[in-house]
Amino acid sequence: MSYVQGLKCRECGRETGLAAVHVCEFCFGPLEVRYDYDAMAGNVTHASIAAGPPTIWRYADLLPELPGTDPADRVDLGAGFTPLVPAPRLGAALGLEDLWLKNDTVNPTWSFKDRVVSVALTAARALGFDTAACASTGNLAHSVAAHAAGSGMSAYVFIPSDLETAKVQAAAVYGQHLVAVKGNYDDVNRLCAEVAGEYGWAFVNVNVRPYYAEGSKTIGFEIAEQLGWRLPDHVVAPMASGSMLTKIDKGFTELTRLELVAAAPWKVSGAQATGCSPIARAHKDGSGVVRPVRPDTIAKSLAIGDPADGYYALDAVERTGGAMEDVSDTEIVDAIQLLARTEGLFAETAGGVTVAVLRKLAAQGRIEPSERTVAVISGVGLKTLDAVADRVGPAFTINAGLDDFTAALSLSARAETPGR
Ligand SMILES: *Cc1c(COP(=O)(O)O)cnc(C)c1O
Ligand SMILES: [Zn+2]
Q1: 243 CB under 6 A from ligand 1?
Q2: Which residues pair with 131 in a beta bridge?
Q3: What's the gap in Å between 313 CA and the centre of ligand 2?
Q4: Is 200 within a domain?
Q5: How many C-alpha atoms does 287 have within 13 Å on its Cβ side?
Q6: Whose alpha carbon is nearest atom 14 of ligand 1?
Q7: For a surface tag, which of 112, 248, 275, 375 has the fewest beta carbons within 10 Å of its beta carbon?
């Protein structure tokens, strides 16, 4: 059964029916999916969730699945229910005693975007679309192309032409239509708003964005379920448009409302790269005004200069008592290495941003050592190998002889002797 009632404007509260629209026709505010929470009470339970599949769709009752959608018609490659793992070694390095990592690198296309795309395309298909499209900083293109291919839809994905090679090729391999645009993400997004008006496609982050955005709540649901149906004290999440962070907070709010977790305070904190930090800056300078910027950072998956959910992310962070910080490209790469070396997890640059900000907030005392803290690691390092390319490599290159190895080993041991 579906508890979805329609769409509702976040600003003026006007309600509309389920359709492929994302802005209110009265005030141009963003539309959000509306649910019948009263009808859920007593029906959506720990047991009903546990009876579902080990994917985001175990939370189908809390997702915008249109009435009458057959589970077999979901656009589903198995996203979600990713590991939540304790991180004692990284925690020790940062002075945090109860640190956990939400490892979203193991999704079907190796980033958290599979959550939002699976939900968006499932809704799009139920609304009658057979073609999906998106403006992307890379991971979204990869995920939309894969989900379209795997469900017999077709897709047009638009990316900035200067993306990491791995992300371009990974998005192209699924045989969909990949369009490289000369410009940055904000240019691509502007073009897509026009294309969406001209062609009858489901643009996952334009006309079906209300459905898309709901997919991120599943990170919050999973964290709580995996902690034994308890909320963490603190979540640190990366921010591009600010949507994921906003929806993790919404997920916790819904679980509390449905009494699926005991009511308890939580904090959400946001992470950005200094080279694209319009939301963090608005928080730190106290102005509360999100001023668009021209991105210049290696964290390309977070390089949205004009973030659609910036104000909602600010609200979530300030309302829960969290914090925002930004970090340099060098700090990002340091953090990628620190995470890999302490926990065996290789994250892309967005993960480096999250861990570097976690480190900063811990050092500033804005995360207490005893807080149960979860860092969201949202994408895999193999897609951004360039970030570490000039820092790591073979210990030594030798001929295939035991003597050669022994000689190289003693040379390198001497090189590592302290005080030399
Ligand atoms: C898209 C993305 C995010 C966050 O995106 P929002 O627009 O803030 O929801 C975080 N990490 C990675 C790897 C991403 O691709
Ligand atoms: Zn409105």
Answers
A1: yes
A2: 154
A3: 19
A4: no
A5: 10
A6: 301
A7: 275
Residue 360 CB less than 6 A away from ligand 1: no
Instruction: State how far the Cα of 343 lies from the Cα of 325, in Å rounded to an integer.
Output: 23
Q: State which residues form the domain around 243.
A: 84-110+215-388
Burial of 5 (0-12, 13-18, 19+ CB in 10 A): middle
* In a domain? residue 5: no
Domain-embedded: residue 14? no
Provide the CA 46 distance to its chain's centre, in angstroms: 25
Own/partner contacts of 358-364, CB < 8 Å, gap of 24 or more, are 358/94, 358/96, 358/99, 358/236, 358/271, 359/94, 359/331, 359/335, 360/325, 360/327, 360/331, 361/236, 361/269, 361/323, 361/325, 362/94, 362/95, 362/96, 363/94, 363/95, 364/325
pLDDT tens-digit readout, 261-299: 999 999 999 999 999 999 999 999 999 999 999 999 999
Q: Which two tokens stand for residue 385?
A: 């190998």
Q: How many domains, the chain?
A: 1
Quick: pLDDT tens for 32-73.
Answer: 999 999 999 999 999 999 999 999 999 999 999 998 889 999
Give me the pLDDT at residue 419, please.
52
Question: What is the amino acid identity at position 65?
Answer: E
Q: What pLDDT is attached to residue 414?
A: 84
Q: Residue 249's domain is classified under what CATH number?
A: 3.40.50.1100
Prediction pTM value: 0.96
